[in-house]
């Protein structure tokens, strides 16, 4: 069987071994064929050293197959999605490997409505690609190439107009030298913030820090926020569709608490993923809203937002979707909205204190690929046989059980590595440890 092209977030792999110019060329042709060898596609890329290579290659494949290409160059992922909508294009392509190290790159495709290509759409592209079903057009139907700079100004202006931030809020922004570098600080300044930048020089080697925004990589940001007395620190991943905040004391905000804090502001129906914690339910209950949980992955969140007409959606990873603007994740807008909250309501550390946190445990059990698949087939039964105080079972992505006392556990196979993850939360530490021990016993006994 041919190697699977698309993973959990588009095509992703090591440059010039897995992700090559040839692959980009043929993905361009495959997408063109999928679109009926006509139409317009917006094309953008992040700061990686391989981006112009892939940009030229995929563009050639599209043009050869009759698609008009609108290049917007170096942009955050959400700008490709925004441009696809505003320019009424038929699809958007972003060349990025998001938070992966610099030797990686990838291709992610978007629908005109702001939703990433679903796995069904990706499967179609993949079939065309592997079967080489794509066709060239005759010389007189080759696509045209144009460049659009104005759309970037329009995006910046639209974002600035969406928020109301008190003048002079002190913000430190760390873009990892990724795609946010030339946008995020500019937008925050236009929105009235006093911005200090870290790693905002465009550089495909990511010399300042790894593009994954986690505590290990954000030490300089955490120290800088405290050193200059800033109100807020914001860190983006490599393509700026995600962000995480650092509070005025220099602490990274817990992902779940931050998501609960922003969700509360929206109220109504909020969509999140199966791995999101109890604080989400409690925060929404407080404002008369409700939480829906779906499969991990922003495209799944986007799908449910559309179906349920939800006000907001987000994953605990800092991937937030703002349907009042666009249903693709936007790390710059997410950051602006946090700055707005801090500027109107006070210190972030105080605001986060109001969000309840409970003992939570994350474990992983290493096992073979076969064992992982086999045990997950029986997981619902195994868990229901072993626990007698189950209130709710959700099997949309792994098995998630909610108990009568609000404790919950999620047993989920890793999508990329050979282990089963156990994530759980309870209001009581002993109870959390009991659930953990039971689950680990169930898994180990049945491997
Ligand atoms: Mg990203």
Characterization of this structure:
This protein is of the alpha/beta class and about 450 residues long. Helices cover about 40% and strands about 25% of the residues. It contains 14 helices and 20 strands. The strands form four sheets. Strands 1-5-4-2-3-6 form a six-stranded mixed sheet, sandwiched between helices. Strand 7 (about 170-175), helix 6 and strand 8 form a beta-alpha-beta unit. It is globular and about 70 Å long. It binds magnesium ion. Magnesium ion binds near residues 239 and 241.
Short description:
The chain is 38% helix and 23% strand. By secondary structure, it is an alpha/beta fold.
User: What Rg do the Cα atoms give?
Assistant: 22 Å
Low-confidence stretches: none
Ligand inventory = magnesium ion
The major sheet is characterized as: 6 strands, mixed
- What amount of the residues lies in strands? 15-25%
The dominant shape is: globular
Name the helicity range.
25-40%
In round numbers, the mean pLDDT is 96
Extended strand count: 20
First-residue to last-residue Cα separation: 27 Å
Count of helical regions:
14
Structural class: alpha/beta
Report strand order across the widest sheet.
1-5-4-2-3-6
Helix and strand topology:
Blueprint: E1 11-14, H1 21-34, E2 40-45, H2 51-64, E3 68-74, H3 77-86, E4 91-95, E5 104-110, H4 119-131, E6 145-147, H5 150-162, E7 170-174, H6 184-190, E8 194-198, H7 219-227, E9 232-236, E10 243-246, H8 255-266, E11 269-273, H9 278-286, E12 290-294, H10 298-308, E13 312-315, E14 319-322, E15 326-329, H11 331-345, H12 348-353, E16 360-366, H13 369-386, E17 390-394, E18 399-403, E19 408-413, E20 419-425, H14 429-446
Helix pairs in contact: 1-2, 1-4, 5-6, 8-9, 13-14
Bound molecules: magnesium ion.
Magnesium ion (MG) binds next to loops.
């Amino acid at each position: 069987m041919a190697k699977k092209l698309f993973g959990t977030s588009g095509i992703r792999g090591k440059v010039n071994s897995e992700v090559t110019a040839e692959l980009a060329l043929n993905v361009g042709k495959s997408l063109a064929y999928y679109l009926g060898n006509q139409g317009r596609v917006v094309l953008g890329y992040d700061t990686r050293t391989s981006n112009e290579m892939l940009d030229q290659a995929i563009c050639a494949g599209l043009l050869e197959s009759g698609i008009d290409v609108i290049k917007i160059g170096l942009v955050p992922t959400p700008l490709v999605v925004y441009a696809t909508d505003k320019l009424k294009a038929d699809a958007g392509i972003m060349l990025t490997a998001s938070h992966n190290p610099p030797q990686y790159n990838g291709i992610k495709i978007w629908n005109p409505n702001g939703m990433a290509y679903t796995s069904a759409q990706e499967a179609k592209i993949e079939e065309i690609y592997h079967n080489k079903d794509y066709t060239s057009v005759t010389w007189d139907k080759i696509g045209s190439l144009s460049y659009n700079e104005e759309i970037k100004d329009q995006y910046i202006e639209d974002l600035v107009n969406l928020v109301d931030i008190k003048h002079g809020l002190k913000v430190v922004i760390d873009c990892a030298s990724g795609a946010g570098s030339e946008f995020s600080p500019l937008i925050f300044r236009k929105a009235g913030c006093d911005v200090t930048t870290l790693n905002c020089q465009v550089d495909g080697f990511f010399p300042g820090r790894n593009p994954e925004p986690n505590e290990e990589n954000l030490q300089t940001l955490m120290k800088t926020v405290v050193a200059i007395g800033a109100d807020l620190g914001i860190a983006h991943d490599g393509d700026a569709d995600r962000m995480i905040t650092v509070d005025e004391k220099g602490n990274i905000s817990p992902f779940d608490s931050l998501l609960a804090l922003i969700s509360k502001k929206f109220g109504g129906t909020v969509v999140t993923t199966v791995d999101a914690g109890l604080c989400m339910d409690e925060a929404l209950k407080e404002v008369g809203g409700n939480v829906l949980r779906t499969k991990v992955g922003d495209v799944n969140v986007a799908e449910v937002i559309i179906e349920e007409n939800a006000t907001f959606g987000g994953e605990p990873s800092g991937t937030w979707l703002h349907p009042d603007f666009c249903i693709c994740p936007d790390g710059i807008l997410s950051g602006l909205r946090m700055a707005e909250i801090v500027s109107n309501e006070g210190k972030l550390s105080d605001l986060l204190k109001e969000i309840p946190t409970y003992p939570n445990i994350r474990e992983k059990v290493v096992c073979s690929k076969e064992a992982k698949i086999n045990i997950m087939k029986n997981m619902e039964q195994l868990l229901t046989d072993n626990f007698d105080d189950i209130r709710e079972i959700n099997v949309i992505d792994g098995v998630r059980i909610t108990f009568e006392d609000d404790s919950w556990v999620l047993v989920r196979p890793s999508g990329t590595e050979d282990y089963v993850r156990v994530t759980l939360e309870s209001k009581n530490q002993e109870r959390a440890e009991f659930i953990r021990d039971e689950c680990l016993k169930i898994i180990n006994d049945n491997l």
